[in-house]
Each structure stands twice: as structure tokens, then as C-alpha cells.
Design goal:
- Strands 1-2-3-4 form a four-stranded mixed sheet, with helices on one face.
- The protein has helices spanning 2-25, 38-55, 75-90, 123-136, 143-165, 177-208; strands at residues 29-31, 58-64, 97-103, 108-113.
- The longest helix is centred in the C-terminal third of the chain and has 32 residues, at 177-208.
- Mean pLDDT is 80; it is low at 13-25 and 177-195.
- The chain is 61% helix and 11% strand.
- It has 209 residues and is an alpha/beta fold.
Length: 209
């Protein structure tokens, strides 16, 4: 009987431990609407844990497939609703923080952070180089794949930026892979545009002849 009770207690503690791990794993992903791949989630949480333990900073992700706005809504009203939604999220975050916010249907991407990161985190650099190119790519990848890649890419860039400002090396860092993927995408798109211009010019000149 004692062995049976000990076994039950052991199972209960194991389940509690597993439950706590699951809760902790979602600590940095506030919402994702099931648009982020499990592997990307795991990496995001790994980076987030290290950033919090080594730098004392909370890096969060908030992804929505849609905010449910009317397609005919005025731009000003749309901006106001999105801003109010983000402010509600910020009010619940543990400081210091950085928040990567994405609303797919509204084509909205934003980076918000505590005042202490104003001179550290370059919002435009991270969004334009690491997030937007992957979200906006016109390829065969699914929305699920694009959101997963863009979120992880941006998250890794945020973490590395903060770590570098404090001269700390992150073991979980994805390094330059995020920058490389965005650069490759840009080169590909620019190549298409240039080739298109050449083809157009050639066609016009040939027609004139």
C-alpha cells in the first residue's frame, strides 16, 4: 500500500511539473492564433528564457490572424483600434519589455518597448530587415510558414540586439541566419524587377526597329 501511495504521489508531482513547464513555455508568446509552428515556439521560448535570465528583459510576441475589423473601416479608426489593443496588452506586461505585434489580416506589424530601449532597439531595422520581408514574400510558402519564420526571425534579432548592447553572448542565438534569409529574399525580388525592366526595354526597342 505504501509503495502504491508513493507511486501515486510521484505521478502527481510529475504531472504538476509537466503542467508548470507547459505554462512556462507560453510565457513569452501571449497569443499566436495557432499561426506559429511548434518548433518556432520552442526556439522563441528558449531565446526568451535566456534573455530573461541573463539580461532581465522580457521579450514578448503577440500574433493575431485578424482583429475582426470591418474591411471598409476608415484608416484613422483602424489605427486607433489597433493602438488601443496594443496599449491594453502593454499594460499587462512585466517590465522591462519588448513586444513584437503582428496582425495578419490588417497587414500590421509593430515593435513596442520600454523607454530604456529607445537608443538600443532600432524598430525600423528589425521590422524592415527581419520581419516584413518574410511576411510579404510572394512564394509558395503557406501563411503558417511565413508567420512562423518572420516571428522567429524578428524575435532572434531583438534578443541579439539587446544582448550586444550589454556585451552578452546568447547561446540560443540564431545568429546571422535571419539577416541572410531576408537579404536573399530582397536580392531575389530586386533581380526580378531588374530583369523585368530589361525585358521591357528590349521589347520596346525591338518593336521600334
Amino acid at each position: 500500500m505504501k509503495k502504491l501511495n508513493s507511486l501515486r504521489i510521484g505521478v502527481i508531482f510529475s504531472l504538476l511539473f509537466l503542467f508548470c513547464q507547459i505554462l512556462n513555455a507560453q510565457e513569452f508568446i501571449i497569443n499566436d492564433d495557432k499561426l506559429i509552428d511548434d518548433r518556432a515556439k520552442e526556439k522563441i521560448n528558449q531565446i526568451g528564457d535566456e534573455v530573461k535570465s541573463k539580461l532581465g528583459v522580457n521579450v514578448y510576441v503577440y500574433v493575431k490572424s485578424t482583429l475582426g475589423l470591418d474591411e471598409n473601416i476608415k484608416t484613422k479608426d483602424k489605427i486607433d483600434i489597433i493602438r488601443n489593443n496594443e496599449n491594453q496588452i502593454l499594460s499587462k506586461l512585466e517590465q522591462p519589455y519588448v513586444l513584437l505585434s503582428i496582425s495578419v489580416e490588417e497587414t500590421h506589424v509593430n515593435l513596442l518597448f520600454s523607454d530604456e530601449f529607445k537608443n538600443i532597439v532600432d524598430k525600423d531595422d528589425i521590422l524592415d530587415d527581419y520581419v516584413v520581408p518574410l511576411l510579404a514574400s510572394k512564394d509558395k510558402n503557406t501563411l503558417f510558414a511565413k508567420v512562423s519564420a518572420a516571428t522567429l526571425n524578428g524575435y532572434g534579432a531583438i534578443a541579439d540586439t539587446i544582448a550586444e548592447s550589454k556585451n552578452v553572448k546568447l547561446e540560443s542565438s540564431i545568429g546571422n541566419s535571419g539577416k541572410v534569409s531576408s537579404t536573399i529574399w530582397r536580392v531575389f525580388m530586386y533581380s526580378i524587377i531588374i530583369l523585368g525592366l530589361f525585358a521591357y526595354t528590349y521589347a520596346v526597342l525591338k518593336k521600334r526597329k
